Amino acid sequence: MTIYALSSGPGISGIAVIRVSGIKAKIILKSVIKGKYPEERVATLKKFIDPETGELIDEGIVIWFKGPNSYTGEDMVELHTHGSKAVVNKLHYILEKFDDCRIAEPGEFTKLAFQNNKINLLKAESIGDLIAAETELQRKQALKIMSGSSSQQFNLWRDKLIKILGEIEAKIDFPDEDLPSDISKKLQSSVLEIKEEIEKSLDDDKTGEIIREGFKVAIIGPPNVGKSSLLNYLSKREAAIVSEQAGTTRDVVEVHLDIAGLPIIISDTAGIRDSNDEIEARGIKLAIHRAEDADVNIILLDPKNVDFKGFFDDHISDKSIIVINKSDLGLKGIPNSILGKEPIKISIKEKKNIDKLIDEIKAKLKNQFLKNDNVLITRTRHRYHLSKCHKHLCSFIEKKDKDDYDKAAEDLRLSIRHIGNIVGRVDVEEILGSIFENFCIGK
To answer: What is the C-alpha to C-alpha distance for residues 108 and 443, in angstroms, rounded to an integer?
Structure first.
């Protein structure tokens, strides 16, 4: 089967890139260009024609990649045309007329690259993450995984465990020789070392997943302290309704922001207070849950609200940033117990000191999550398999006696399999769909 797709973004653009990969790529290329066939891996200016009528469609660049020296490992062609909808649609119409040629599914080009051993599973995922990256931090993390450092570490653990398993199985497979009375301390020590290294990787505050998905910052506080106004100011648009009427915000309003390269999902929540209104009460419950789930909470107060003492005591924590809005009205009425915690005093109305709040958000996130550059885990899938591997290694270490050799070997086999699932060194067909379906078509 031969596949094709628009690999550049949809819509009008200066250039559009259509990829074709598969056994008929070369035949298709010969049919849609005029003149001499291009050299391999050389960008060549060509006229694109309709093979049935000879009609000129466009003029652009052709690049021919002969398999296996291509992205997918198959024969592959790139047609660089002008980014007109009419040109792209016409070429798609021509391509679909070829037998055994169809439009690609999301991520199918990268899936082929994986299946043809051009890349491993971690690199495939990092390509998807790089395409989806919205901030500098996400870009850097995706590139780091693409470089292969994570794959090297996972494969190093896997190779060491395979070697240990080989020694265990050698003892089992030669019954003529008496098995040692216990599993050797040398093997136990080697497994223990790997187990402790995995523990360190698992104890990372889920930094890789958080960077990939975005840091969660919740704005919480009593009604009418300016939570929606702060969200609108930070997002530079009217994302939330602002009103003098208390209880306007009933649901959680989320905005994705790039703050100094950090991916942040900031949430405006309902004002937390006692309420008999059923819908508002649900909104307050959502606000409390969002605060519990957030990486950082902005506790927003103001001098006009005198009923925040109980709220403050209930929701202050290490992940809180205390902020007093409407500081232009003075600080009268705010207890010394709160002022003593050195809150950030802002005025959204006068655009005062909000830069200090942004700096504090950045500092809190960096201190909490960005202390370690050696992030190994970037997806829930990685963490699941590494946790399972760790569990089986713990089980192996608990086995000491001669009678435990078979069970110890099985623990090692399972731990090796779980690491293999991360890098794609085992049969992983069941997980390929969930990984590649999130890619854009044409990648």
So the answer is: 7
Crossing angle (nearest 10°) for helices 429-436 and 108-115? 150
CATH number of 213-369: 3.40.50.300
For residues 347 and 354, give the distance between their C-alpha atoms in angstroms, rounded to a whole number: 8
At 257, list the tokens. Answer: 């922001």
What's the pTM? 0.78
Q: Which of 263, 192, 255 is nearest to 228 (CA)?
A: 255
* Both tokens assigned to 269: 């929540």
At 273-308, the pLDDT tens digits run 666 666 666 777 787 788 888 899 998 888 776 555
Residue type, 129: D
Q: What are the residue ranges spanned by the domains of the chain?
A: 2-104, 136-204+377-436, 213-369
Q: What is the mean pLDDT of the chain?
A: 85
Rounded CA-CA distance 108/438 in Å is 11
Q: Which residues of 26-83 form beta strands (DSSP E)? A: 33-34, 44-49, 56-65, 76-83
Report d(CA 277, CA 1) in Å as an integer: 60
DSSP secondary structure string for all residues of 223-273: TTSSHHHHHHHHHTS--S---SSTT---S-EEEEEEETTEEEEEEE-PPPS
Which residue, among 213, 249, 211, 212, has the nearest Cα to 230 in the 3D structure? Answer: 249
Domain 2-104 belongs to what topology?
Answer: Gyrase A; domain 2 (3.30.1360)
The CATH fold assigned to 136-204+377-436 is Four Helix Bundle (Hemerythrin (Met), subunit A) (1.20.120)
Radius of gyration of the chain measured on its C-alpha atoms: 29
Closest by CA position to 67, among listed 117, 33, 111, 7: 117
The Cα–Cα gap between 202 and 224 comes to: 41
Contact 421, 415 (CB under 8 A): no
Angle formed at CA 292 by CA 289 and CA 297, multiple of 5 degrees = 115
Structural contact between residues 334 and 303, judged by C-beta atoms closer than 8 angstroms: yes
Specify the pLDDT at position 310: 60
Q: Is 351 left (phi over 0), alpha (psi -120 to 50) or beta?
A: left
pLDDT bin (cut points 50, 70, 90) of residue 338 is confident
Query: What value, to the nearest 5°, has the Cα angle with vertex 383 and ends 380 and 385?
Result: 110
Backbone angles phi, psi at 413, to 5 degrees: -60, -45
Q: How far apart are CA 350 and CA 231, in angstroms?
A: 15
Higher-confidence position of 185 and 123: 123
